[in-house]
Amino acid sequence: MDIFHTIPAVRDFVRQARARGRVVGLVPTMGYLHEGHLELMRQAKKQCDIVVTSIFVNPTQFGPGEDLATYPRDLNRDAAMARGVGVDAIFNPGVEEIYPPGYSTYINVERLTEKLCGAARPGHFRGVATVVAKLFNIVRPDYAFFGQKDAQQALVIKRMTADLHMDVEVVVVPTVREQDGLAMSSRNIYLNPAQRQAALVLSRSLNKAAAAVKAGQRDVSKIRQLVVDLIRAEPLAEIEYVEIYSYPDLEQTKVLDGAALLALAVKIGRARLIDNIIL
Ligand code: AMP
Predict the structure, then answer these.
(1) Which uninterrupted H or E stretch holds 157?
(2) Which atom of ligand 1 is nearest to the CA of 33?
């Protein structure tokens, strides 16, 4: 497995693979890999001949006061894990490689980004869309893999690729969870044992909501309230948002009459955790 730090080096690698007729897959990540990331890589290996994974903690998607400086980083560990699932190359650029001095172009996906994490983290999706567009231009993958864990992000990336006629197919992979239900996340490392236990309230409340829907509940505000009440009962958890929107359009809805996204963001200690389920 190769590790590239510059754009010309990774471009060269991909160009040679393409010349041999290889199908190229890209798995963008911020590193500190876990099973969720590895599942994206395994799916990529299944669908593509060559898999490139990017590891880049993208500063433009972090807001002031967020965890950019403390975000966990461990390239050696990541490289061993990526190699283990057959990744062919890691692209690990420095910040100046991606945002050289004078950099001034950004991508803004409208509408979809006005709610949920977009409302809670102003500028977040502008940073995400910008860096993903850059990675697509650098690697020119046939397929790119994203996790349903970040449901809104996957929708934003799909919207961007369609709107800008990008020649890449976006594949969304189901959320990978710990055995007890907690969605895997690099940020889970911020949790102490009591907080780790408290964090189970996210998946538990989503499952309760799904059970209520299965039992016939269609009233969106009642389903939402059920989730809010469960999370409020957990003293270590602080709700940032609990929302239900139609899926995949993310429109307001009062009654469930098609697929809907129940998404939540909850702070536990210094970890901001997100999770979601399709109802
Ligand atoms: P991140 O490194 O957190 O930016 O995530 C990189 C990619 O991995 C994104 O497409 C995420 O949606 C995806 N991902 C993160 N956690 C999970 C998970 N638990 N299950 C599936 N995909 C995930």
Answers:
(1) helix 151-163
(2) 2
